[in-house]
Specification:
This protein is α+β, with helices and mostly antiparallel strands. The chain folds into three domains: 6-92, no CATH class; 125-233, Butyryl-CoA Dehydrogenase, subunit A, domain 2; 236-391, Butyryl-CoA Dehydrogenase, subunit A, domain 3. It has helices at 6-24, 40-53, 69-79, 85-89, 95-105, 108-119, 235-271, 283-310, 317-346, 353-363, 370-391; strands spanning 33-34, 37-38, 125-128, 148-152, 155-166, 173-180, 183-190, 196-201, 213-224, 228-229, 273-274, 277-278. The protein has a four-stranded mixed β-sheet, with helices on one face. Helix 1 packs parallel to helix 3 and helix 5 (95-105) runs antiparallel to helix 7.
């Protein structure tokens, strides 16, 4: 648990918010923001500015300690006020989740080699788990893993293909999941590596993450034995350590984006007139903005509740599933209403509202689609009911 006071957290949050609003937001129209995310030179430029402002990797302290999940929530919400904010201050996916995992599982030597460059914002990372659907590989069901790892002397040789790997193009650190004789296992990989081939970067609806989302071939990738992350066969267990907080941190960042989108839509509705009065005075518009406030508050409270659960030290698998479903669906409703309130301007690139809408549509799939989380929760409901019946 973090020993940082709430006053310190508020100060960190205020600095991050001011930086994102005043320094980062003007970059949103930079031509280096492309279909596959901001370019590498833009990432380097923004992180240099964040480093100078003292807001780089604000959720991890100088001594390596991590803020509590509740404290992380307010900081990451502030970082999300611009789609470029998390990249600039180094709270973006997948790096934020990978840093968390390495902090929990990596050996001291692995932390010095692989975690330190991520925390310092000198490298990006990628998590290689999902596989192509057409080959029957792992997606929402990681037990379908096709990628293999076999021991050859003091190296593991990894073969397989991965899909939708966020940030692989340009990453310096990779975490690869593959099957050993013991089961799913994680390996730390130096990138680039000629055996890790990017087949193509997909054209997707979202565009905020550097490197985009790639299809990857792993052709005889040799990884030294000491770069296994944790123990052989424990990959699913470690993935769960990462996934519950990562689901929630997605919620945190995109909450911030929806706060900003709602601010833009509200300002538009107050300023724009139609049929003799401001748009906001028309019930059809005013009620949509009222619904946005309700959804924002519910999302905020759901994030805080789940963060509090994770701060007790439990995995919080069910709780993070509930939060991910509730928050992603609420935030998408908000983004959709913002577009609707702004009409033609809402679907244009004149503001970030249309991008937030696109990003939030994708968020309903990130880290498990809504339907998979509901299915998992339904299984838990059944297990709990059968257990209660037996106990009774």
């Amino acid at each position: 648990m973090s020993s940082v006071s709430e006053a310190q957290v508020q100060a960190i949050t205020a600095k991050v918010e001011a930086f994102v609003r005043d320094v980062v937001a003007p970059y949103e129209k930079d031509p280096r923001c492309g279909a596959h995310g901001p370019s590498e030179d833009l990432v380097v430029e923004l992180r240099a500015l964040a480093r100078k402002a003292g807001v780089l990797t604000p959720h991890i302290l100088a001594d390596g300690a991590h803020l509590s999940q509740r404290q992380t929530a307010v900081v990451l919400q502030a970082s999300g006020l611009s789609p470029l904010g998390p990249v600039a201050v180094n709270t973006a996916a997948p790096d934020e989740g990978n840093m968390y995992l390495l902090g929990k599982v990596a050996s001291p030597e692995q932390k010095a080699r692989f975690l330190a460059p991520l925390v310092e914002g000198r490298a990006r990372s990628a998590f290689f788990m999902t596989e192509p659907a057409e080959e029957g590989g792992a997606g929402s069901d990681p037990s379908m893993m096709q990628t293999t790892a076999r021991l050859d002397g003091n190296h593991w040789v990894i073969e397989g293909r991965k899909a939708f790997i966020t940030g692989a193009d340009g990453a310096g650190v990779g975490i690869v999941m593959a099957k050993t004789d013991d089961g799913a296992t994680l390996f730390l990989v130096d990138l680039p590596d000629p055996a890790v081939r990017i087949e193509r970067v997909l054209d997707t609806i979202d565009s905020s993450m550097p490197g985009g989302h790639a299809i990857i071939s792993l052709d005889g990738l040799r990884v030294p034995a000491d770069q296994m992350l944790g123990a052989s066969g424990e990959g699913f267990k470690y993935a769960q350590i990462r996934l519950s907080p990562a689901r929630l941190s997605h919620c945190m960042r995109w909450y911030g984006a929806c706060v900003r989108a709602n601010e833009i839509a509200t300002a538009y509705a107050v300023k724009r007139h139609a049929f003799g009065k401001p748009l906001i005075d028309h019930e059809g518009v005013g009620f949509q903005l009222a619904d946005n406030l309700i959804d924002l508050k519910q999302a905020e409270l759901m994030i805080d509740w789940c963060a509090g659960v994770l701060d007790t030290g439990v995995l919080g698998t069910a709780e993070s599933s509930m939060a991910k479903v509730a928050v992603s669906e609420a935030l998408f409703r908000i983004a959709d209403r913002c577009v609707q309130v702004m009409g033609g301007t809402g679907v244009s690139g004149d503001t970030i509202v249309e991008q937030v809408f696109r990003e939030l549509r994708a968020f309903r799939i990130y880290d498990g689609p809504t339907e998979v989380h509901k299915w998992s929760l339904a299984k838990k409901i059944k297990r709990d009911a059968l257990h209660a019946a037996k106990a009774g």
